[in-house]
Amino acid sequence: MTSGLPLFFVITVTAIKQGYEDWIRHKADNAINQCPVHVIQHGKVVRKQSQKLRVGDIVQVKEDETFPCDLILLSTSREDGTCFVTTASLDGESSHKTYYAVQDTKAFNTAEEVDTLHATIECEQPQPDLYKFVGRINIYLDRDEPIARPLGSENLLLRGATLKNTEYIHAVAIYTGMETKMALNYQSKSQKRSAVEKSMNAYLIVYLCILISKALINTLLKYVWQADANRDEPWYNQKTETERQRHVLIRAFTDFLAYMVLFNYIIPVSMYVTVEMQKFLGSYFILWDDDMFDEELGERPLVNTSDLNEELGQVEYVFTDKTGTLTENNMELRECCVDGHVYVPHAICNGQILPGAAEMDMIDSSPGVDGKEREELFFRALCLCHTVQVKEEETVDGIKRGIHQGKSTSFYISSSPDEVALVEGMKRLGFTYLRLKDSHMEILNRDDEMERFELLEVLNFDSVRRRMSVIVRSSSGEYYLFCKGADSSIFPRVVSGKVEQVRARVEHNAVEGLRTLCVAYKKLTHEEYEKTCRLLNSAKLALQDRDKKLAEAYDVIEKDFILLGATAVEDRLQDKAADTIESLHKAGMKVWVLTGDKMETAAATCYASKLFHRNTQILELTTKRTEEQSLHDVLFDLSRTVLRHHGSMTRDTFSGLSGDCQDYGLIIDGATLSAVLKPTQDGNNGGNYKEIFLEICRNCSAVLCCRMAPLQKAQIVKMIKASKEHPITLAIGDGANDVSMILEAHVGIGIMGKEGRQAARNSDYAITKFKHLKKMLLVHGHYYYIRIAELVQYFFYKNVCFIFPQFLYQFFCGFSQQPLYDTAYLTLYNISFTSLPILLYSLMEQHINMDILKRDPSLYRDIAKNSLLRWSTFIYWTFLGVFDAMVFFFGAFFLFDNTTFTSNGQMFGNWTFGTLVFTILVFTVTLKLALDTHYWTWINHFVIWGSLLFYVIFSLLWGGIIWPFLNYQRMYYVFMQMLSSGPAWLSIILLIIVSLLPDVVKKVLCRALWPTTTERIQRMRADRIFERVETNIHDSLLDGVQNTTEA
After folding, report:
1. If you ran DSSP here, which 8-state letter would residue 829 be given?
2. Which residues, listed in sequence order, are joined to residue 441 by a DSSP beta bridge?
3. Facing residues of 482 across strands?
4. DSSP state, 189?
5. pTM (predicted TM-score)
6. Which of 113, 398, 674, 752 has the maximum number of C-beta atoms within 10 A of its C-beta?
7. In whole angstroms, what is the distance from residue 991 CA to residue 891 CA?
8. Beta bridge partners of 73
9. Element spanning 168, H or E
């Protein structure tokens, strides 16, 4: 009963929590599954539940409704067969994306017309990739041979997305239920466990071994004791006949189990409930932190999991994205370079170059007639080569947009902020993109003349090609292919143009930290265009390896360009980003920047954010260098460079927690990283590339990884996690491309930024700005760790104090399994008497003021490497518990030996002895926690002294009343009788002091001889308070003397 009640309490609390969460999920599932859907059957629109949808059903969806399954778009209320969709619930992108109906079905607008459609769809098996779909639709239009049309991701409407600014659509269900792409992405995240939790489990195994050892020792000694016939069956405790006939092994096993039950309290089962409550309630301190509230967004931090709170205080490596994380992701076109002539949009007003703009723009020289044509062609290229949508004045997501000074204007929407910045920059330079209407793109030139270009093909951007292209036909019938992309993907495909001048400008802007794009074009003849169309259609219709065939087609089409120029877009550094990185470095963390940007742009951002300093020696491990030398030689050169100063390759500076950090910075690109991580055929030279790379990184204060694919970001985090030191890693980012590294790291933090909310949704914590990371780690993380570390050690300590006297008592009761404590005390010790003070301590303790923690990041080093839960600390707490338990037991035993204590000469019995030991125990462990408390509030006083008062009142009631529901009354008047004895009071006070004295002496000596940084600051603060009090007393005395003299 006494063992089962605490366990039952723990299981009940956990079951209630899990059951409530399951019930909430069940309600949410029912709400989705029973949602009404409009389906076309026999030419009519009927309603059915979404869970009854089947593949092949034609669904009608109206504006602002959510798609119930994955659908192929057949027709829309718009004449051009397009619809607008937001996918915020899928990838966090709140911008409106354009989707296209199948060309041969977009005319089927009514339910009757759609019902007459005969077609078959061939597609790939369900895949979790949200951005990939390969299929083909065969449409039968009164002919034997069907018309085949390709289906891609632009035709696929995903379950969970929402229809916007389109009255209605008709679409056919292609994947339903758990086969939808959203459902396939429901894969459970890998379980993340904190270092504290791992230490708890290791300690628990140790205590389980101690429990088994105690039971074995007592079982063995019992049979040694009973070997004497006189001791085996004393007259007052003779065995029954059944017990005598039982086999000795069965009796020994039964006794062993009895001892396991008797001593099982050494396992702190209730600790797990307390830890769960501490984590859950403690997470609200992040949610309530006003310093981390973003007034601009009106958002507070999010805690998606509270299981990793203390891990925020153990971070050794920080992996951060650049765009939108370190920078604002608020793009603005700074300049254009056309054939070496530089244009700054800010010097342009209403499409007219201001007087003296040549000097303001730093335009090198007049472009001339040919240059003028190239300039306008460059501006047209940027007005045409994009996927920007134009919106007139309307309500979008409840917000009215497009009104300027009372007039209706247009505004641009795109999934890429870069594209909006470029199109808006062109508008300031005199070329305004108006709209896409009937497959024609309309632009307004500087002369306010509208130009129309028919949009024939769009070669969408992808992270492998790093470019996008469009094929358009002008009103005069000329075919153009415009392309924009990264310089590394454009320059190799250029055959003419002022490459060197543009390249120099691109490199100059990249060093300044600007995001650069190059623009090129080529004219196509009608025959070339026809050939291009056939090539693209052949690739689009392929059901197998469509992506590969499209990539090959793009590679053939996108070449032999004429370079027009380049653009430079500024993405400003976030507020206090540099200060945050500097603080993280001082706290002993290593910061790595993982970005897809080019090296020069990323390096400039690293200098601006103080990741690199001007005296930092930059080590490059890039494709450019490995082309000049072999990878093997480059790695060993870099290794020799860093080790020349450090002296030894085995030096443990991996965690960055050594104060002797060297100022080296490493830059590596994605291609070289792939080569470093790639397993080699021969295990001779290449086998240790990874180890050499890690050794170089150990000795660098910062690392920049550029041109990184999302998967490579996760690979880097995984590589550092798996290294021999197993450091704690944190990844922070704001985009969908950062999700992989956020999930891989020990702690993942998402930023609620402009690239959507997918990173925030997949993270453990979400913040609005990078600067909030400083307080989250240095303050909240620090507090969480020291609180839970004390909680864990204290729980094991107080359970040793509790159960070791029970173990000792068996030596004095003939190993009869007689309990030392009453049943009520056994049950309530962990549940009531000692649980609340440590829970409150673990929520409110502040050993140092939070302003000092922010001001002095080096304090973070004191708790690094799980320092408060090391084995040496654990052994100290355990031995302290054993010492205190021996003081309780033997102190009470020897003080009471052969002595009468009551006024009538009665001797104390075994229950009085047990109650005395238990009283000393409760007061000692509670006062031990009081001595460890640095931050006192009225709540602490109330809980600590209130817990002791509750124990006294409970004992008086428990022993002062004859309880009718109990079949025994052994505790009646025991507590009152004990308190009526003067020697008992003296014993309680004396033994409490003796128990607490060693820990106090140890702390005094350690603080005096080997103080930590934290203890030095605590002492300085105490000295300042003492000086202030002394000054006030001195001033008061002087005032009193003066007043006396005057009198």
Report:
1. I
2. 436, 453
3. 470, 521
4. P
5. 0.72
6. 752
7. 7
8. 171
9. strand 168-175
Tell me if 517 sits within 8 A of 469, measured CB to CB: no
- Alpha-carbon gap, residue 538 to 555, rounded angstroms: 15
- Cα–Cα distance measured from residue 799 to residue 94, given in angstroms and rounded to the nearest whole number: 53
Question: What is the rounded distance in angstroms from the CA atom of residue 464 to the CA atom of residue 489?
Answer: 9
Q: Parallel, antiparallel, or unpaired: how do β-strands 411-413 and 432-437 relate?
A: unpaired
Sign of CA dihedral 945, 947, 948, 949: positive
- What's the distance, Cα to Cα, between the start and end of the chain in Å? 76
Bridge-based pairing of strands 450-462 and 440-444 is antiparallel
Please give the Cα distance from 753 to 738 (Å, whole number): 12
In the chain, what are the helix, strand and coil shares in percent, each to the nearest 5? 50, 20, 30
DSSP summary character for residue 366: -
Look at strands 327-338 and 302-303 and give their pairing: unpaired
User: Which residue in the list 91, 255, 321, 418 is annotated as catalytic?
Assistant: 321
Residues in the chain: 1047
Paired tokens of 488: 């590394």
Dist CA 371 CA 369 (whole Å): 5
Per-residue exposure over 540-569, b if at least 16 CB sit within 10 Å of its own CB, e if not: bbbeeebeebbeebbeebbeebebbbbbbb
Strand partners, 562: 496, 521
Q: Which residues of 682-691 are buried (b: 16+ CB within 10 A; e: fewer)?
A: eeeebeebbe
Task: Output the DSSP codes for 595-617.
Answer: -SS-HHHHHHHHHHTTSS-TT-E
Q: How confident is the model at residue 21 (pLDDT cuts 50, 70, 90)?
A: low
321 is catalytic: yes
Q: What is the pLDDT of residues 846-881, one digit of tens each?
A: 888 888 888 889 888 888 888 888 999 999 999 999
Structure tokens at 419: 């594209």
Neighbours of 811 (CB within 10 A): 11
Beta bridge partners of 571: 331
Tell me the CA distances in angstroms from 914 to 118, 222, 824, one per residue in order.
87, 21, 12
Rounded Cα–Cα distance for residues 446 and 647 (Å) = 65
Handedness of CA 572, 576, 578, 581 (dihedral sign): negative
